[in-house]
Amino acid sequence: MTKTKKFLLTDEQTPKQWYNIVADMPNKPLPPLNPKTKKPITKEEMSVLFAEELIDQEMSTERFIDIPEQVQDLYKIWRSTPLVRAYALEKALDTPAKIYYKNESVSPAGSHKPNTAIPQAYYNYKQGVKHLTTETGGGQWGSAIALASQFFGLDLKVYMVKVSYNQKPYRKLMMNAWGADVIPSPSTTTQAGLHALAQDPECSGSLGLAISEAVEVALKDPSTTKYCLGSVLNHVLLHQTIIGEEACMQMEMAGDEPDIVIGCFGGGSNFAGIGFPFLKKNFTEGKNIRVIAVEPSSCPKLTRGIFQYDFGDTEGFTPLLPMYTLGHDFQPADIHAGGLRYHGAGSIVSQLLKDGLIEAQSVPQLETFAAGLTFAKTEGIIPAPESTHAIAVAVREALKAKEEGKEKTILFNLSGHGMIDLFAYEQYFAGKLQNYDLPDEVIRKSIDKLDKIIK
Amino acid sequence: MTKTKKFLLTDEQTPKQWYNIVADMPNKPLPPLNPKTKKPITKEEMSVLFAEELIDQEMSTERFIDIPEQVQDLYKIWRSTPLVRAYALEKALDTPAKIYYKNESVSPAGSHKPNTAIPQAYYNYKQGVKHLTTETGGGQWGSAIALASQFFGLDLKVYMVKVSYNQKPYRKLMMNAWGADVIPSPSTTTQAGLHALAQDPECSGSLGLAISEAVEVALKDPSTTKYCLGSVLNHVLLHQTIIGEEACMQMEMAGDEPDIVIGCFGGGSNFAGIGFPFLKKNFTEGKNIRVIAVEPSSCPKLTRGIFQYDFGDTEGFTPLLPMYTLGHDFQPADIHAGGLRYHGAGSIVSQLLKDGLIEAQSVPQLETFAAGLTFAKTEGIIPAPESTHAIAVAVREALKAKEEGKEKTILFNLSGHGMIDLFAYEQYFAGKLQNYDLPDEVIRKSIDKLDKIIK
């Protein structure tokens, strides 16, 4: 008799509500501020950029929020996603730890991003919005919102960070196949882009800058055009909790409970998705599950940034958000994990970290690729460069368990596959990838600049 | 209450045996012949190229063959694959037909090919083989056997048809990531390759020629090296029946039964995989399910070829197989469905067609891409160019049902996703793709040549 490896839910079992962690947080996240008045931003002010129901979710303190039926129907295309016991990885590491992963790579866009893209497109469509603008780093978000916009007949313009635009032509084509217009950022189509190019014509872009461009375009015609974001904001994290809500049920099916839950960390969406429903167990069932966010050591806002109000974008168009940040014009190194090249963390995650309710670790690029290949060779799935960060810490913790001779149950989120990122692996094989030292003074300089701008 | 869309089996429910259709065929397939003696090829002769247990399966008349536990364990990485009710596609076509698809694109290599790659690598490993050689067209088979070889520590050399090698660099990189050596065919590493290049230095290759190269290399050291094939042969088709065995159970879960089952057709493996278990119902339960093979109109061996003994490869290294064929040196047009550019059909499928137990249709390239995009826009999954052929006939049959005002249940196999084939879609959008006329005289010429060679 072979061992059960994979746990799935039927369409009927799949959760029908998202989990809003704000309801259970001992200290609620600080509100976003209007940069001019420094007062909490109002619903009216936000409605220039976002659909009404998304703003309600952004500000909600309800514990559970119903998933609309049309969204449930579209989730069924690929959800539930498998929870898998990684026997082969465990064996390769010769660890007493049990390792599970939640496989979000099985979505049509290849990552967890459609979990929020679909409700975002839905609520905008419902409100009569015709055009959406957004940014994308590695292209995971851009392809997800292209897919979702297609379902609801919305026109979409995507500003794609230039370094990824060049590294990942297939991602661009995927967005085109789903009908989106894709523009490399910085571009000459916006003031923000022109400004960045004037300062550095070779600028490879950043998520923060691409956000500036997308927001600028949306603001030109707020009556028919809205902006949407693939991470950071509360409503985005909310939608991703479908991951962890499923995983909680699936771990029960497996007759197990994780001691450690791990997600890679860019703006916080896949981390929140896998982590928050397990934090709920800490809050409400007195459990003591460690929940770890993993960031690249070249973009270490959680482990080396400071907690303060900062802009979400490079140019300062967004509201001020309370966040762990490296400064909004911090320019991260050109690592292949494009989705993790973001200067700040969402306000909920930042508050949780400040309160010691979650942990953070950073991992250098070469360690992440080594872990990713170990995973590809044992479990058979080539992971996205972003996801290799979560794998790397799963490997660290599994080896620590071995050293300590302890049984431990580890769960990580495989946020996406790497089929569109194979050139990164080619460069790794060729020895062309590197780690990036990030001296304290570089971070200090970027943060000091911040203090002068934001009083 | 939203509608159930997706049907899955648990690890425990997933079938533990493959179905061998030979046991139920009214006329058994003719045996492969030794090209020199014209006598049925012996097990000993085949063992130069293939592992013993694979040859046993090739010749078996047992109805069911147990799936080894190690193979079952690896299947669990992605199996069972979802059976999905395509509500959105039905709605877009405004058809009374119910359309289901079996989603084989969820495997780590993105297609159905690992279903046979894993047992093939397993049996070779078990026998102590160290090196494998093979060919690949679109790259689906090559990446699948790379994955499988990696699991069992086998060294692998893949001859990849040059047109695909150039069109699909990511497929090559995927094979590299799983440790395989990939060589564009025709190459200068074999006599067969040199011969083809001498005749036409610009030759874009074909599956038949790549087979010649891979077989030539394997024959150099049969004690440690074996050849393996991703389609055509009986044991390959056998392994793929896991698809249809699952689908039969899943259609029952859906409370439905197909009137029509559709698979695209290159050498026959995904077609057999979805189709044979439903033919079993025709044979043993008196059902009358139509099973349709779909080929490109530019490579129409089933609809315009002849039934006779022919070589499996271009150079004439393989045994003679009874097949519907266009002649073994037929050079198909450079369509994007690389996996369907093969001159012949496997002997089981050929016998079934000859006996009127299955049907065949051919579809021109532009119709397949149009159908593929309709599917991508409605069901959200970008299909492989090969798979769009099955979709095109599902669309034809659904529209026919509408015309006739008939309820019909259609099931097709989505053999793979198109994430690695996005350049094909880009060319389609740009109006650069075409249909290919294939005059009767071209086919006749190729077949006439055949008659001179094979008496």
Which two chains have the most extensive interface, and how many residues on each? A-B, 44 and 44 residues
Q: How much beta of chain A, percentage-wise? A: 15-25%
Runs of chain A with pLDDT <50, length 5+?
none
Radius of gyration of chain A: 20 Å
The CATH class of the largest domain in chain A:
Alpha Beta
Identify the strand order in the major beta sheet of chain A.
1-4-5-15-10-11-14
Specify the CATH architecture of the largest domain in chain A. Answer: 3-Layer(aba) Sandwich
Structural class based on helices, strands and sheet pairing of chain A: alpha/beta
Number of helices of chain A: 18
**Could you give a short account of the major beta sheet of chain A?**
7 strands, mixed
Overall geometry of chain A comes to: globular
- Predict the CATH topology of the largest domain in chain A: Rossmann fold
The portion of residues assigned to helices of chain A is: 40-55%
* Alpha-carbon distance between the two ends of chain A: 65 Å
Task: Offer a few descriptive terms.
homodimer, 18 helices, Rossmann fold, 455 residues, 2 domains, 16% strand, alpha/beta, 7-stranded mixed sheet, 4-stranded parallel sheet
Can you offer a commentary on this structure?
- The structure is a homodimer of 455-residue chains.
- With 455 residues, the first copy, chain A, is an alpha/beta fold.
- Helices cover 42% and strands 16% of the residues of chain A.
- The first copy, chain A, folds into two domains: 6-13 and 77-110 and 236-447, Rossmann fold (3-Layer(aba) Sandwich), CATH 3.40.50; 17-67 and 113-234, Rossmann fold (3-Layer(aba) Sandwich), CATH 3.40.50.
- Chain A has a seven-stranded mixed β-sheet, with helices on both faces. In chain A, strands 8-7-6-9 form a four-stranded parallel β-sheet, sandwiched between helices. Chain A has a two-stranded antiparallel ribbon with strand order 2-3.
- Chain A is globular and about 60 Å long.
- Chains A and B meet through helix 3, helix 6, helix 8, helix 15 and helix 17 of A and helix 3, helix 6, helix 8, helix 15 and helix 17 of B.
